[in-house]
Design brief:
alpha/beta; type ii restriction endonuclease, domain 2; 148 residues; 15% strand
Length: 148
């Protein structure tokens, strides 16, 4: 990705500043020592948030590369659920801000990345089964929030 290579080119130049980074939600290192950093978001993030989301991804990359300019690092926004299913995830707020191929993993793509190919549907099935089994308990819990 062009932005990562631009950061890599300057990551050790100038005076280093201490910064307080947003915490990484999920960090994975594969067998080739590649780092995969995920910021997990709700299915319908706020319109104004994508600029900050992008900044967070790039700050993470800069912090990793400042420590090791040769690191193989990837950063992503992860949206665990696609509310538009069976249609592709489509949120107008992302247009132009994220490289959708390189910086976004939604639903099946995210879970299959974490758990291996074809793990998404069994995961959904488990959520459905738990929801069915716990429905009375869930309904009971939420009744205390209903205003009469």
């Amino acid at each position: 990705m062009v932005e990562i290579e631009k950061i890599r080119a300057v990551c050790r130049s100038g005076k280093m500043q201490k910064v307080k980074l947003t915490k990484v939600d999920v960090l994975i290192t594969n067998h080739d020592d590649e780092l995969f950093l995920f910021d997990i978001k709700t299915a319908k993030p706020n319109a104004g948030g994508f600029k900050e989301f992008k900044r967070t991804l790039l700050e993470w990359v800069a912090a990793v590369l400042a420590n090791d300019p040769t690191a193989k690092v990837h950063s992503f926004i992860a949206i665990p659920y696609n509310p538009y299913h069976p249609n592709p995830y489509s949120r107008w707020t992302m247009r132009g801000m994220l490289d959708l191929e390189q910086e976004l993993k939604v639903a099946e793509e995210f879970w299959d990345f974490l758990g291996g190919e074809n793990c998404y549907q069994p995961l959904l099935d488990v959520f459905e089964q738990v929801g069915i089994e716990l429905r009375p308990e869930i309904d009971s819990y939420f009744t205390k929030f209903i205003k009469e």
